[in-house]
Design goal:
It is built from four helices and no strands. The chain is mainly alpha-helical. 0% of the residues are buried.
Length: 83
């Protein structure tokens, strides 16, 4: 690891401490995770929160016509991969 020093506003420091406490990790770990998320974002990866939002937005909008899909989805998926 590389040690670095940053300056935060009082509010940023307070919120980071709260987040770290809630997650059971250090403030440094919260910051590292935020930096990783920003790097992924810059690399063209869609942040997890956005992926979740998009997935939730399409739920229930498509119909397969298969009545037991929720029960037998693994079977149907395996059959599709065999094609």
């Amino acid at each position: 690891m590389v040690r670095t020093q940053i300056q935060l506003t009082e509010r940023q420091a307070r919120e980071l401490k709260r987040m770290a406490s809630r997650e059971g990790v250090s403030m440094a770990e919260v910051i590292r995770r935020a930096v990783d998320a920003k790097i992924r974002e810059g690399a063209g990866e869609v942040p997890r929160e956005e992926r979740v939002r998009r997935a939730l937005a399409v739920m229930g909008k498509f119909r397969s016509g298969i009545r037991d899909l929720s029960t037998n989805h693994d079977k149907y998926l395996a059959e599709d991969y065999m094609k």
